[in-house]
Queue: 4 jobs
Job 1
Amino acid sequence: MREDNASLNRPAAIHIESLSRHYQMGEALIRALDGISLQIRGGEFVALLGTSGSGKSSLLNLVAGLDRPTSGSVVVEGRDLAELSREDLAKHRLHTVGMVFQSFNLIPSMNLMENVELPMRFAEVDRSKREGMVRKSLERVGLGARVHHRPTELSGGEQQRASLARALINQPRLLLADEPTGNLDSRTGTEIMNFIREFNETLGMTVVMVTHERALAERYAKRMIFLADGKLIDDQPNRGPVHPGGGL
Amino acid sequence: MKLYDSAELAVRNLRESVLRNSLTTIGISVGVASLVAMLSLGIGLQQMAGRRLQKSGLFDTVIVTSRRDLRSYNREQEENGPSPAESPVLDEGARQKIAQLPNVLEAYPDIRFITELRFEDKPHLSTVAGLPSSARNHDAFDGMQGKFFSSENAPEAILQKAFAEELLNQRPKRGADEVGVAGLAGPLLGKELIMQYAERTASPAPSDGVDNSAAYSVVSHELKLTVVGIADLDPESMRGASRARVFVPLQLAEGLHVMQPNDLRGTTRNAEGTSAYGAVSARVKKPNDIQPVEDAVKRMGFNAFSIIDATNSVKQFFNVLDIFLLIFGSLALTVSSIGIVNTLVMAVLERRREIGIMKALGASDSDVKGLFFAEAGAMGVVGGVLGIALGWLIGQVINLGTNIYLRRQHFSPEQIWSVPWWLVLLAIVFSILLSLLSGLYPASRAAKLDPVQALRYE
């Protein structure tokens, strides 16, 4: 495993050791992840690459604390997620992790304000502080004028921006993005990726992004991890040219 | 998540599926309404019976008799206390003492005598009783034709329906329709009734050297009474065979000094010639005062009788009735609680993805559970309030209908429906509890959802 020089001196944000996730499908055993070990240091921008079914989303779900490993460990900021209770895993998702999905996953019956406010309700943030924080967060992604719009009234790019605002509202240290540009055209995709890079660089957030587009990874990530059939097949720093604001 | 956040999100979610949730809420309200309706009916009937019994004077009256009167109401009492021969005389002094007992409103002598009454020159025999003015509010006079006595001394009479029928020779034949009081009142009100009675007057004691001898004369008199009222019900049904069918004002009856059956027995001790009473009725403030007054009277050496024990049987009957009504009312509420389970299970299925998103954003199992509980609770609160309103409305309609029927049948209107505040509170609490109970399964199902699976769900 090679490491990115820029993050060498930072403590490991994520430490994965012999991680396996197997599913029983009828009589067949699906090895979604099979003995993966890797370390991601704080502040890194890592792209998980691989074809469909390679296990990249499964790995992301395990790091997010949405799923539990069959064996091995996922240690995020010193805590082994496999050992945490359901309640503590929820706290991990609430305070440590921000998630962005391919299909945005905004709640259609809520307007943007309510969608972005939702994690703050779970975190029991004081009611009086919420509105200001939500507005600030939406303004940051350029949606200050759309706070009362419902997701269905927005374009895909706007929805993903709102989803980014929601992912950041509780100031997590880790941003997990599952194919964040998968449902977007290249111009909007670039817009979203620029935001993600900005969060990585200005806020020092660790970013783990799942993608099957190598070009996208090369443009934005600082490190690329390749998975195939649940196994880690390559882990390399991105030495390719980074084009700020460039197309996908 | 804080409670107000759960509540806010719950209300927002309920508004999203407004039709389905409204129908479920209406289901709950019908359930609560049926429960409220059934229990209100039970309570109303119980209160009505209570009012009737209280007005009947049966439950706020202690009848005091002397132990010397061996025909007294309750012979068992004679085994305790002084023997009949040593017991005190029930005279005016004793009446005043009884009247001064705590919680006794009044104590009046029971003046009754069997005598002959002539109406249109035809003699009739009946027991005549004196009625105190407090009997004006007596239930038996509710449907009375005419009016109550104009004063305590007025030579007026109120007739019981059966006696009025006898006077007019209109005894109903078996199976035939009864003649209404109104029909009897016409030919009788304002008419004269001549009462013959035997007055007891004191005479000088014969000087035969025997101490304590008493002498009195019995003089026959006649008194013209004006019929002022005809009462439908029997105000003295509890007195059995000795019940009166003709009533005169109590003071008038007392003033007549009619020879009483117990005068003869009291003769040997009652030298002064003052009359001893056959019985004294002590009216108490409320039925609960009966027992202490009865005990006090017994301590004074008299016999006391009331039919308070009968109220216990009545209470027991209504308790059983209430339980049955509660069971029937609860059936509808049970059906509506199944409606809540159904609605929430549907909501969990429909909102799988939403639940997955919330979990991905950091919602804990208890947050998700709390959200569904809040939705169930909100439906319970709204359903409960609507149900009480609906139950109350049903009650009012039934009251109205019953009273229209009662009026047509020439009965006085009755409040057979009562929704006390504790029932309102109980219905709301019950409705919320049942809703929460119904939300238990859907909520735990939602909380246990695997977020990875839920997020894949489209």
Job 2
Amino acid sequence: MKYARIFVLVLFSILGAIARAAGQGEEPRSIAITAKRFEFVPSTITLKKGETVKLVVKSEDVTHGLFLRPLKIDTDLTPGETQEITVTPQTAGTFSAICHHFCGSGHGGMKLTVVVE
Amino acid sequence: MKDPVNRRTFMKIAGTSIGVGALFHVAPLLGATPGGRRIAALLGKKNGEAPTAFSFVQLSDTHVGFSGPPNPLGTQAFENAVDIINGLKERPDLVLFTGDLTHDSENPVEHADRMRLFQKIASRLKVPLVKSVPGEHDAGLDGGKLFRETFGETHYSFDHRGVHFIALDNVSLARPNVGPEQIAWLKKDLARFPTTAPIVVFTHRPLFDLRPDWEWFTGDGDEVLNALASYENVTVLYGHIHREHTHTEGHTTHRAARSLIFAFPDPEAGVPKKPIPFDPQKPFQNLGLRVVNEPGTRAGSTPRIQEVELTLREYAGTVGVQQLLKEGVSL
């Protein structure tokens, strides 16, 4: 009986360790974003404070930019290339990411709303 | 005897809104005193040219070629501005255009036509000197190629009556950046001047973070401002934001001029960045061309409405180029 209890405890410990290890290796949530004249699709994304998220971003026409200082995002988006940007927002709020690579007449209104809950 | 001249008010640039931009008066205040004349002579030696009084005008964001709901009148405000400047009692020496002279076009031929139309209207200015820098609508799509072919270099400097003018390009890299090459050029350009030299930088975007999420900033603006930090008399004139704005940091004062096409809202008003809607009853109000009622000449006559009010307000007394000599410089 005593050995059976020890066996169960060890078994649970091992299972717990395996579960924790699996959790650590879990891929962060991924959000696909496409830039095109003169919008981002989707136009709004929602993140959670403290959650690590992978933004998979590409341009489907000309070179665009993606700039959001609160999340330290500052990159060009070249057509034909896909970028993965990993972020972990620390502040809740609503932010505007913009295209900061001039792309034509509607450039000034090209933005992506980022909601951090 | 203590020198009666207050060195911090040796030269002033006072800006006056004239409804179409800003008229700047550069006024050395020394000539009346022997001490002042000695300072002016010293500065003449140091800067290569002794400061003398003159005025200049800043215009911005004419967007020649733009046509849309925010302003269906096209170049009308720009043409009015030219008329106003030509009618000024004090003829300015210089007109500076701080970018977005034209609205962009995918078609290079059409964009070239817009630049020629800009030149045609600007050529009516009865001033000795017209200088410009590009905005992103002029140079963002082709790296400034067409602008250079039409107007010349996108960054350069020149001296005028003791003031050093620096044209900075923060649009041709497509991103809001000046770039390391131009910053190196700037440092070299500044090196020949004493820290007391009056400097006017004119550029398109603000060099400080006004609203980065509206693209109202320059990514490497800090590096430019650091290069200018040891100079005591720096005024930065810019456009891009389509409204007046003043911002002082250290010895540097930023001043934005209004647009001649449409206005953007107050960045601190908590509203979206969208052009202020066109009002056909007051087509130029947000461009600074105010409607003024003037009394009629006969009793009971309807007040005459002018689209322009001159001398709307003084920016300040001694601002901009506040100081030409370092405190403690021995004469």
Job 3
Amino acid sequence: MRDSIVRLEKAAKAFATPEGQTVTALDAIDLDVRRNEFLTLLGPSGCGKTTLLQAISGFVELDSGRILIDGEDMTERPPYRRPVNTVFQNYALFPHMTVGENTGYALEVAGVAKPERTKRVAEALAMIGLQGLESRKPRQLSGGQQQRVALARAIIARPKLLLLDEPLSALDKNLRQAMQIELKTLQNELGISFIFVTHDQQEALTMSDRVAVLSGGRIQQLDTPRAIYDQPKNSFVATFVGASNLFEGKAGSGQLVTEDGIAISHGRPGATGAATALIRPEQFFLAEAGSDAPSLDIDLEQIVFVGSTFELFGRTATGRRVIAEIPATRRNLVGEVEQSRHARLAYDPAAVHLIPAEAA
Amino acid sequence: MSSIAFRRRAQLAVLLGPVSLFLAVFFLGPLSIMIVTSFLAPGLYGGVEWSWYPHNYGRILGFADPMFEDFDPVYIAIFLRSLRIAALTVVATLLVCYPAAFCISRLSERWKNFCLFLITLPFFASLIVRLFVWVLILRPTGLANDVLLNTGLVTQPLDLIYTEGAIILGMVYVFIPFMFMPVYASVEKLDWTLVRASLDLGAGPVRTFLRIILPLTAPGIAGGAVIVFIPALGNFIVPTILGGAKVMMLGNLIEQQFLAARNWPFGSALAMMVMSVMLVLLFVYVVVSGRRGLDAATGR
């Protein structure tokens, strides 16, 4: 496939634990990463995302399967002969070298002459907003600056692919959000594919062209952020990405009925059989008196104010937990609910997503 | 002085008092006596005569007392030989310990501790006894020659013992733990993600070793080199047992001057010379590592 920069074919890897069991980190994974794509590997710890990344960079040897980078078989190649660079989680800057030496390391190794190297180091540092800091040592920089140096060091040799292993996890929230935008911009400017590993679903949705949700060494779903969020293929994806209210039951005639007798209207008249209905918390709204929108009645347990929204935690009459997010602009209605400890949560049936039972 | 500052000082005095006193009495005292003695004339029947006599140093450096002897460069030769043997000991112990430290640092916690215990195990037996075992191995009718003769590799027993090689072998044997500990400490601390980063950026194993691993473990190597080189330079037990009368080192020479020749001033002068060589080397080490330490602090 000409469009593919990285291709994994039935990539499999299992590890032996000290207790003598084997853990499947990669379960015959097939994956195509497109040229100039920002792909995020998202999953809980132990889902295999880091193993997948290390298989691409060459630090993990596959038990079976193949890895192709730009059409070339890389399965047997050592890390230092792959056109791939990595931004490590703890930055892994060389403490005995200056920022300039760190940044230019890949060029030095490749035998680029000193004047050319100095020029390109200056360019790379300017690109990430650290111009003029060449002679500093890494330990003199803040965490955010070290992060940028690690980034500059990884892109300076123009790899075909940049791997990022949870690079933002050590930064504070504001800096992390700023870096998310910057990374996305940088990727557009450079025109190389990024594979970004994270366990933070917000991060995954913000930056990616496509997200691969991993669990148990398998790709559960590979799709655009919107599709992952709006149309999760199974309940793992639904619960891992974003908050969710799930109702398992039997679908039919525009309604899904759960075992405890709750009826959820949905926009798919043709759907039948066992299925799970997903309603995101923000799809609920507080029904005004006399509204005929389908709704759920809950007994309020708690209201949490998070700034732009109120989060309502409650239970149905049958004890099922429900979360709703109400915009802060509706504070009058929320005030009423707080008084009565009871809420009628309305929703638009078209916004309800049905997950077929076999996938869930 | 505020009472807090006063209490701090009092605490320091209490903590440092005993060790300062001990060093003053048992280190500075004898050292001063030795410095004074090294400039006195030897007595005819041992002891010293209280007169200014710089020729103790002259005998070593080239201005011997013309009344008794011509200058003989034999002492300089012994100096150079000792320096060479000590340097080779450092190199050889490093060659043994550096790879071993990498292997052991990657073992599980239990095996690590066991290996470290094995390294310190020789200290539990007397040094003299352990060195005499080497005599049994290296002598013409010893184990090494038995093996060589029986396998037909040689037809005549080799002269293994009483050679410089035997001394270096013995020295390496004695000083391996001293080299291992500081080297291991720095290897153990090595951050392997840096090695990965280097490989990831395209540097092969050799370059990664030279640019990343070696510089980051250099403090341990330097520390090990110093604490092996200094005692190796003055060691007299190993050359006495494995060098015999053939290969003399500084330690033997000094020992002889004090115990056999009863020329204390000359022995003191020799000891002072050894000490000044060591001080110069230590000074270089402190300056170099100090600058690096300063670098680390200021990032220059």
Job 4
Amino acid sequence: MDYSKYLPLSEASFYMLAALTEPSHGYAIMQKVEAMSGGAVTIGPGTMYGAFNTLEKQKLIAKVAEEDRRKIYALTDLGRQVLAEQVRRLEVMVQSAHAALKLGRAA
Amino acid sequence: MRKVWKWWWAWQDREHEQWLAAQSRQGLHLRSMDSLGLLHRFEQGAPADYVYRWDFKISGAKGDYRQLFTDAGWELVGEVAGSWLCWRKQAGPCLKPEIFTDRASQLAKYRNLFLTIVPGLSLLPMVILDRNLWQDIQAGSQIATGVFGLSLFSIALSAFASLGIWRRMRQI
């Protein structure tokens, strides 16, 4: 399957998908992402709300419940595959860059 | 309670946010606004370091949208024309909260604003300007002249808005 139309994921989408491996609502995702990234990544509510709509339209996430006006989302199978493909591509990039930087230092 | 009138355009939202923050540092905190966004009602209190941020949302502050902002610690302090929402959050010495944390979502806000106001303003004259209108104007009809004037105004406003929004988007 070709995942190119979903990739690359924005930083916010990437972390949201990673956080949604367990179903969560928006604020829980914000906290998870901060914890996951060691405080390096913060997602504002405006950015997150827009990303929810986009990811839901792309069927990468789906609403599974609603509690007190908080929508609870979960990763779909497609979402999981897209996240895995993004991680694979990032690994290739990181390895290539490490090799290139090492070569640059040696010369 | 202090009332302050201030004229500003929708694409001057960043400047308006700075102005509101400056008022708060002097102890004047926005409590509400009129539906046109010109009359500001401030409450006197202790000076505070607040961040104000405008979001543009045509369906207003409802449901899960409002809940998400509230959960994240933002307070709704102004609502203009049902679609401009003024959010406020306490800032810290090394903490500047933002409602939009990437470029794409910031740009999307102005894209939505553009698509909401510009097509309407430019289409209106196309609908009402027709050949009969010219004949009526030549025949000395004041209504026809008024309609023509209104159309010109609408086109000028549309161009002005486009320029303002375009400039704002270039700064992002």
